[in-house]
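Contributing new complexes? Match this layout with FE2/S2 (inorganic) cluster.
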Amino acid sequence: MGHQDGTALGWKGKEGLPSGGPSTHEINLADLSKGWSKQGGQVKVVKPPLPSPDKRWKIIDAKMRKMGYQPHALIETLHAVQESFGYLDEVALRWVAKSLRVPPSKVYGVSTFYNFFTLKPQGAHTCVVCLGTACYVKSASKILEAIEVFTKIKPGETTPDRQLSLLTVRCIGACGIAPAVVYDGNVSGRVTPEQATEKLKGYFSHAS
Ligand code: FES
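Output block (do not edit by hand):
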């Protein structure tokens, strides 16, 4: 699995690991991200904008709001990101850090410490198959099966030539057009197993 290096992300590494990192009570205001400011002794909340208009970010933001944007919501929020996108990338990690006022190093540390989190895969392309209830009842498992047969990889893996990473998610908020598959960040609806493999063939035929 293609874990990114903390240095590449411009962060300090793993000092935020749960076992040795600062507790939420030890967070220094100086470490807080730019979107938050201290005014008259009070921390003024200036929410960072959503990373993109993709409505999955709104769903995750609503979860954080429910938990009061508290730093202790970190793991649950990272779960929500992974369930929506299939992995955690730099954009998501930085946005979560700002939203919850947690140092990016801690967010990176937590997401690399637990093996149920997947950082952005290394494939040139990503294919995320939704296996949420609405998609599942519309035979999403057959789509996944066809993709697995075609690519010879399982969810969470990348093809040996690094052309494609395959992932699954629980729901991407597009149940109305189930079954849904996300190719390189673009949602496709009412996908058939044949369409899915045809689409992926294009990735491999353009590979140099
Ligand atoms: S269950 Fe697949 S989009 Fe909602």
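Reviewers usually confirm one structural detail per submission. For this one: The chain has two domains: 24-113, 125-205.
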